[in-house]
């Protein structure tokens, strides 16, 4: 089963973390939370969910994980000002490891300069940013690119997003 690095900080979209986490854990995978610094808790922007952070980004290496998950909300924008987080993200894309990003999650992929030529979706407010970064934007509930990158737009897309992230891990036998 896969060990999944989850980049998350305060103001994440509550359901965009909890729903995929449940789907991944039900499929037998391990979800590990990572922020700029460890040993703390973060809160979702709806104020409904509190998440204990397992590790700070300096305490882990991308090679310790099979996949990367980036929930949406304001969290990806707050994380992408940290070069360590950006480098961690870029490593997964460069190594063609599975990456799952929903809503504003692809903002981290933009900053990592790793989506040029890739098929992608995300929240409508970042469409121009994605296109300016060279991505091919699709207004669809879920987009799977090169059997590696899975993206979705909003919480309404979570059933399709969850299905595809679990299927991709199964397909890759992780």
TrEMBL record:
GO BP field: proteolysis
GO molecular function: peptidase activity
Keyword presence, Amino-acid biosynthesis: no
Keyword entries, A-Z: Hydrolase, Protease
Gene3D superfamilies, alphabetized: 3.40.50.880
CDD domains, alphabetized: GATase1_PfpI_like (cd03134)
Residue span, DJ-1/PfpI domain: 3-167
InterPro entries per UniProt: C56_PfpI-like (IPR006286), Class_I_gatase-like (IPR029062), DJ-1/PfpI (IPR002818)
Assigned protein family: Belongs to the peptidase C56 family.
Protein name as catalogued: Cysteine protease
Organism of derivation: Ureibacillus massiliensis 4400831 = CIP 108448 = CCUG 49529
